[in-house]
C-alpha cells in the first residue's frame, strides 16, 4: 500500500512533451510553483522533454498540471504525461 508522506498532500511526476526547452519553461514553472505554494523540482531531459515532480495541496497540484498543459507563452506543449509518485519536498527548485 502506498501511503503519502505528507497527509493531505498530493505528489505527481510530470513529463511535458513539445517545444518546451529553450522557452523559459523551467523558470516559468518555478514562478508558478511559488505562486501556488507547491514544492518539488523541474529539469530538462536529454530527449527534449521537461520533467517535474510537484507536491502540495491537491487543488494546487491540479492547478499546476493544468498550467503545464499550456506552459509559458513561447512553449508549445503537445502532451503531459502524469504519474502518481511519492516524496516529500520543502521547496521548488530547478535541477540539472
Name some characteristics of this structure.
96 residues, alpha+beta, five-stranded mixed beta sheet, 2 helices, globular
Mean pLDDT: 93
Helical amount:
10-25%
Count of helix runs: 2
Question: CATH topology, anyone?
Answer: Alpha-Beta Plaits
Strand order of the largest sheet: 4-1-3-2-5
Q: Whole-number radius of gyration?
A: 12 Å
CATH class: Alpha Beta
CATH architecture: 2-Layer Sandwich
User: What characteristic shape results from the CA principal axes?
Assistant: globular
Count of the domains: 1
Largest sheet: 5 strands, mixed
Structural class computed from helices and strand pairing: alpha+beta
How would you describe this structure to a colleague?
This protein has 96 residues and is α+β, with helices and mostly antiparallel strands. The chain has one domain: Alpha-Beta Plaits (2-Layer Sandwich), CATH 3.30.70.100. Helix content is 24%, strand content 36%. It contains 2 helices and 5 strands, in the order βαββαββ. It has a 5-stranded mixed sheet with strand order 4-1-3-2-5, with helices on one face. Helix 1 (25-36) runs antiparallel to helix 2 (58-68). It is globular. The model has no long low-confidence stretch (mean pLDDT 93).
